[in-house]
Design goal:
The complex is a heterodimer of chains A (65) and B (412). With 65 residues, chain A is an alpha+beta fold. Chain A has a single domain, classed as Alpha-Beta Plaits, CATH 3.30.70.20. In chain A, strands 2-1-3 form a 3-stranded antiparallel beta sheet, with helices on one face. With 412 residues, chain B is an alpha+beta fold. Chain B has one domain: Cytochrome p450. Chain B is built from 16 helices and 14 strands. In chain B, the strands form 5 sheets. Chain B has a 5-stranded mixed beta sheet, covered by helices on one side. Chain B is globular. Chain B starts with 10 loop residues before the first strand and ends in a 9-residue tail after the last strand. Classes of the chains: A alpha+beta (65), B alpha+beta (412). The interface between A and B is medium-sized, with 20 and 28 residues. Bound molecules: protoporphyrin IX containing FE. Protoporphyrin IX containing FE binds next to helix 4, helix 12 and helix 16 of chain B. Chain A: Keywords: 3Fe-4S, Electron transport, Iron, Iron-sulfur, Metal-binding, Transport. Chain A: This is Ferredoxin. Chain A: Its cofactor is [3Fe-4S] cluster.
Chain lengths: 65, 412
Amino acid sequence: MKYVVDSALCAAHGLCADTAPDVFTLDDDGFNAAAGRTVDVPEHLEAAAREGAAACPESAIQIQD
Amino acid sequence: MTTSERKTTGEIGGRDHFTDFDLDSKEFSENFDEVVSAVHQGCPVARSEAQGGYWVVSGFDDVRAIGQDWQTWTNTNGYEPTRSGTDDARLYPLEIDPPYQTRWRAKLGEYFSPRAIRSNKDSIRRNVNELIDQFIEDGECDWVDAFAAHLPGRVFFSTMLGVPLDDLPYLQAAADQAVRGPVEDRMEGWNKVGAYLAGYLEQRAKEEPRGDFVDAVLEGVTTDDGEPAPFMHKVFVMVDMLAGGLATTTFLLSGIAHFLATHPEDARRLADDPGLRPGAVEEVIRVYASILSLGRTATKDTEIAGQPIRKGEMVMLSYAAAARDPRHFANPHEIDITRRIPTNIAFGYGPHRCIGSHLARLQALTAMEEMLRRLPDLSMAEGQEPVFSHSTVTRDMDTLPVRFTPGAKETS
Ligand code: HEM
């Protein structure tokens, strides 16, 4: 599984990292550190990644199975 | 939902909006709040026989779930029932699905990020004040004609596209015709916009790259066949930006003015407390949701809220109704400037969620700031009401006659 963060949408709410701190990290300004990139998710973190993506108020994180 | 739980009829203003919904109808636009409340209560998936037949989905949770499930609900069949699905005039990335759609979003995203958009703040403020200067000595104006119809084009053409200043009046007039002109003239307006943008792309391809949004479009991405995106797709991307970004923001800017003009108490609080302004903008975006609805087509037999939907049928996601779902918002039709909304569904949900949301928000916030400063007693002109209209896709305000204490120009 991979996730993509849409940099047009990330608004630094920080809920992804609150919900799934092992998957998502924030940069110094509070934006998702992976904005604009596609990232592989290790199998044991897939459920957490889904929860973190679902928590995003801007729909900025898309999961790709 | 079973029949026994339902509000039994959707009859309002001479039409049954449960069994014979028509997004384009006067019966809907003239009774907007009432019809939205009725479908939330009695018919979350309404049937329309207009335009060859479609379904209208209004519930917040249903709209969100469909928006996120692009495998079941494709955009490739067009954004409304009358789209032919032919390939000569499309809107991208609106009318494509992941993974091609995702590649375009990844390519363009950085130019629309909050950080990138914020760098336009001074230029937006300058444009706001130049427009206000044109009417501030008069003490009255039609807000749509004098302000709201102009700011989004000025901002997009000058800051994002970097087109020569001399071309702005032509492009603005063509976009205006496409978006607000008489319905029968709109196609001609879009053709002018498309031809101009294609020519502009061709010309920029010959110039030194500026490292801007236009260069990113020109670089392009690969299609699902692994080929470089053809030139036409790049034109479709440019046209989508204007189709998606002009009329929507015009309605939002009209909504800001209508709200301030009719809620003097709130206007005073917002003048005193800048911290309340971003939340107020978010509420105006929710209640004056500019996109009435956009379509998805079922890729297989499925169901929504118990309503079976067959493969190939089109559903219209009613963002404007979902933004007023009473299950998510108390007093859904009211703007409450202290309400905190976790997700503004007016910008959609899922992979197609609005790429321009931060640009729209910044224009609205900057306009609100300058209105509170320069037009603090803005009110509706004596005895006047705004004129609303809408199409299947957009909600519009045609006129908004306002008045205010005349002030002095600030720029020359
Ligand atoms: C109040 C202002 C706006 C509202 C309410 C709004 C609403 C929306 C909605 C609901 C969608 C989702 C489409 C779908 O689900 O199929 C969308 C997509 C889009 N919007 Fe906006 N929009 C606004 C302003 C803008 C601006 C300023 C721009 C560009 C400069 C823009 C460009 C687009 C584009 C290109 C898409 C398609 C994205 C895709 O398919 O990936 N919009 N917008």
